[in-house]
Amino acid sequence: MLLFTAIGHLKFSKGMTMMMPGFIPFKKEMVYTTGLIEILASIGLLIPAYRHLASVLLIIFFILILPANINAAIKKIDYQKGTYQGNGINYLWFRVPLQVLFILWVWYFGM
Description:
The chain has helices at residues 2-11, 13-19, 27-46, 48-74, 90-110. It is an all-alpha fold. It has one domain (2-110). α3 (27-46) runs antiparallel to α4 (48-74). The two termini are 18 Å apart.
């Protein structure tokens, strides 16, 4: 899952840049950096010596990116098309439980 979302950071970088709140500087660089973080975290989860650390950092990461998803829903951003014609607040009914599932999943298997 993390590798697929990391690829999305490259493929949909315009839309993902639009997701970030206005106060965040260097948005495009942040999109690429978070994609790299997802790749490194996925590798860390596969290495037993790093699994616990990767899990803790990944849970923190999932919590930190949630505001970007909320911002995208409020602004009705379609990150795949890079437009403001997304699903809006309805997207959060899917995204927030999914984010909680990811956190619990990493907690269960990585801790």
